[in-house]
Amino acid sequence: MQPEIAQYYQRGGEASRLGAGAGRWEFLRTWDLLTRILPAGPLSVLDVGGATGVYAGPLAAAGHEVHLVDPMPEHVAAAAALPGVTACVGDARALAEPDASRDAVLLFGPLYHLVERADRIAAWREAARVVRPGGLVIAATISRYASLLDGYARGYVRHPTFAGMLETTLSTGVHRNIDEDQRWFTTAYFHHPDELPGEVAEAGLTLERRVAVEGPLWMLPDLAEILADEARRTQALALLRTVEAEPHLWGASSHLLTVARRAA
């Protein structure tokens, strides 16, 4: 892991990032998708880049056998303390897992911190190796346009450093935080939705679906109020299900979820 990425996560923000606002919406939508995508269990799930276990914990509570792999020792320690979750330090590009040993593999962090395409393909291929024939690989990626939208929603574009970073991100997908205070997201790769089928195919997997996670709702100024109201939250989740597979909305979503399958 590159030093600036490690430093970013050593601040501890990952433990609370998905607890409020847009982060809470990301969690609710991702969990809603997982409950509909994963087959009936119990399953053996490998959570690669699973951080502090924000999804590993609920998956274990739902009866699945969950093992988490993450490059950050602090994350691994937090995840290993969760009931039913085992965890170890590891690299998505070289997993210490037997071939065809898991029913499902989650890549919810690695792909957007691997700037080089060859490294992303290596992570995809490792997931494809570890998952059983007929099993699923489910990957999260950040949208190419997330920093543009976030920059306007939060006013970051008024800062010349951020504006300069944004130009590079929009043209290449590579996001590098050159600000000394590291006030923005760390080194990452922001996918264009059209890149994902090629990465999946190169790993020897079959693409099943791509879906928007948050849709455009993550930019709403009153999102916290919507999520705090059970009726409005339930309505938002129901409505997003109806448009999550609409390609015209993918670029407006902060994250995409890509579902691929290993041939039976």
Short description:
It is built from eleven helices and nine strands.
Measured by DSSP, the beta-strand proportion falls in 15-25%
Query: SSE order in H/E notation?
Result: HHEHEHEEHEHHEEHEHHHE
Structural class: alpha/beta
CATH third-level topology: Rossmann fold
N- to C-terminal distance: 33 Å
How helical, in percent, are the residues? 40-55%
- Overall shape: it is globular
CATH class: Alpha Beta
**What is the number of helical segments per DSSP (H or I, 4+ residues)?**
11
How many β-strands, per DSSP?
Answer: 9
Largest sheet: 9 strands, mixed
The domain count comes to 1
Please state the average pLDDT score.
94
* Low-pLDDT segments, ≥5 res: none
Give descriptors for this structure.
nine-stranded mixed sheet, Rossmann fold, about 260 residues, alpha/beta
Tell me what the structure shows.
The structure is a single chain. By secondary structure, the chain is an alpha/beta fold. The chain has a single domain, classed as Rossmann fold. The protein is built from eleven helices and nine strands. The protein has helices at 3-10, 21-37, 56-61, 73-80, 117-130, 146-154, 160-172, 196-202, 223-228, 230-243, 247-250; strands at 44-48, 65-70, 85-89, 102-107, 131-143, 174-175, 188-191, 206-212, 255-261. Strands 1, 2, 3, 4, 5, 6, 7, 8 and 9 form a nine-stranded mixed sheet that branches. Helix 3 (56-61) links the parallel strand 1 (44-48) and strand 2 (65-70). It is globular, with a radius of gyration of 18 Å. It starts with a helix and ends with a strand. The mean pLDDT is 94.
